[in-house]
Amino acid sequence: MKVGIVGMPNAGKSSLFNALTKAGAEAANYPFTTIEPNVAVLPVGDDRLDRLAAVIGASEVVADTIDFHDIAGLVAGASKGEGLGNKFLANIRETDAIVHVVRCHGDDGVIHPEGKVDPASDIETIETELLFADLEGAEKRLERVVRGARGGDKAAIAEKAWLEELIAGYHEGRAARHTPMPDDVDRGQTVQPLTAKPVLFVANVDEGSDEVPAVVAEHAERVGAKAVAISSRIEAELSDLDEEDAAAMREDLGIAESGLTRVVKGAFDLLHLLTFFTVGQGVRAQSWHLEHGRTAWHAAGEIHTDIQKGFVRAEVVPWDALLEAGGYGKAREAGTLRLEGRDYVMQDGDVITVKHTG
Ligand SMILES: Nc1ncnc2c1ncn2[C@@H]1O[C@H](COP(=O)(O)OP(=O)(O)OP(=O)(O)O)[C@@H](O)[C@H]1O
Ligand SMILES: [Mg+2]
């Protein structure tokens, strides 16, 4: 899962990113040691996984991760290639969701590219750039599709209608997420609009506050997005301290929970994924994620392509049933552990053991 951090220049993106990087590097189960400098890998903590690992006697706990990409500031005109515009937009294109950092703090020492702090206007600037980029992409694609549609190609006809609807929406300032792609459009061939991606607004507020300012909260609600508030600078400073000092400083500042936790959880929730687990005695306990509606066969593919290729059947038990039974044998006796085929639709919290050949 990849999340891109976007926002105006100087909004506080890199401060947030640096705090995330340190948090990731310090987490006990950080699975990668080398990664590009603009990517922070964060484990998505899950209390269920820890409990399963303890009961089953796993050798270690490996939580699934989420990648945050620091993307340079997006200025007005980026979609026309201003600044490093196109490169930034290409970076955003590869992500599954967007964290949009909005400057809300009033520290005069930090220059604002437009000369004044105005969260609503900043949000509009960024959203407009994303819309322009999508508009250009959709118009280009439409030119190509029109010919196929004229020839009577079913997929092309459906795609043409969808693109026209998208374009009409863009002209009215409507993001692509409000015009979902119909099933009969070839997903692999057509545009992947930036404005279809789910968004988490991060209001970068003055230190000591963790309330989302009303303008940001209302905007987020209007566009169907979520919002959290943090002080990027404080989070970056806190991440430099050891745990004890950080906790004391949080208390002094009156910030309850780690702002980073809220950002990671908030970003993760955007993706609407289900979590499943693999756990065994003396081996790793791991968490994994899948889109809702995916099957045991897809789950096997997440674990390993070889396991998917050799899929025979799956043993599935809900995490709480396994916990209650205290082990696989007891869960089998209790009838909560079931045998399932490849088409079994995975449920959130399933613990799976894939039996496979090879
Ligand atoms: N909540 C805050 N209060 C006060 N100062 C802050 C806050 N958040 C960030 N800053 C300061 O704002 C400046 C810009 O922050 P940062 O480098 O994170 O922005 P950026 O969005 O990455 O900018 P760019 O687009 O240039 O990459 C830094 O000096 C940082 O310490
Ligand atoms: Mg930066």
TrEMBL record:
The keyword Magnesium applies. Residues 1-250 form the OBG-type G domain. The keyword Metal-binding applies. GO terms for molecular function: ATP binding; ATP hydrolysis activity; GTP binding; metal ion binding. PROSITE patterns: G_OBG (PS51710). It holds the Pfam family MMR_HSR1. Its cofactor is Mg(2+). InterPro entries: ATPase_YchF/OLA1, Beta-grasp_dom_sf, G_OBG, GTP-bd, P-loop_NTPase, TGS-like, TGS-like_dom_sf, YchF_C. Keywords: ATP-binding, Magnesium, Metal-binding, Nucleotide-binding. CDD domains: YchF. One of its GO terms (cellular component) is cytoplasm. PANTHER family: OBG GTPASE FAMILY, OBG-TYPE G DOMAIN-CONTAINING PROTEIN. This is Redox-regulated ATPase YchF. It comes from Paraconexibacter algicola.
